[in-house]
Amino acid sequence: MADTQVAAVGGRFRAEVANACKALMLEIDANLREATPHKTGHAQANWIPTVGAAFVLEVPGDGDAAHVEGVAQIMRFKLGDGDLFEANNVPYIMQLIGGSSSQAAAGWDLVAIEQAVQAIQGQYDGLTIDLSAPIAAIVAERGGDLAGNVASAYSPFGDDA
C-alpha cells in the first residue's frame, strides 16, 4: 500500500516538474518571438523549440510548420525525454542579438528569457528557476563587448548606466 502511494506521489511530482518545464519553454519561445527585431518577420519565425536536440535548419517563409511541430514536441515532453531547446538559425541572428537593430538593445534575448523565468516562477508558488550557469556560458561565448551591452540591457535605470 505505501509503495503504491509513493509511486503515485512520485508520478504527480514528475508530471508537475515536466509541466513547469513545458510552461517555461513555451513562455521563452513566445517572448523571443515577440522581442525579436523584425523587418520581414523571418528571424521571428525562426525561433523553433525542440526536445532532445536543437533545431539546426533555417526555415523558409513564416516557419509555421516547424514551429507547430516544435511546440507539439514540447507539449508531449516528459521528464527523461531529453533536454529542451530553443534555436534560431538565421545567419544574422547574432547581429540582431548584438544590437544591430534600432528596435532592440543588445542582449534582448536574455532579457526575454529572464522575463519568462519570472513569469513562470510567479505561476508556480515557491518555484525557483536558476539559469545563471547557462546564461553565463552564453555571455562568455559571445565575448566581452556583448557582455557589456547585455549588462546595460539589465540596468534597473533602463539606460546604459
The N- and C-terminal alpha carbons lie at a distance of: 61 Å
Number of strands: 2
Q: Please give the largest β-sheet.
A: 2 strands, antiparallel
Poorly predicted residue ranges: 147-161
User: Roughly what is the average pLDDT, rounded to an integer?
Assistant: 87
Total of DSSP H or I helical runs spanning 4+ residues: 7
Describe this structure in a few short sentences:
The chain has 161 residues and is mainly α.
Describe this structure in words.
Helices cover 58% and strands 5% of the residues. The chain contains 7 helices and 2 strands; from the N terminus they run H-H-E-H-E-H-H-H-H. A two-stranded antiparallel sheet has the order 1-2. Helix 1 runs antiparallel to helix 5. The termini are far apart.
Topology diagram in text:
Elements: H1 2-35, H2 42-45, E1 48-51, H3 64-76, E2 84-87, H4 93-97, H5 108-123, H6 132-142, H7 144-153
Antiparallel strand pairs: 1-2
Helix pairs in contact: 1-5
Based on the model shown, name its key terms.
161 residues; mainly alpha; two-stranded antiparallel ribbon; 7 helices; disordered C terminus
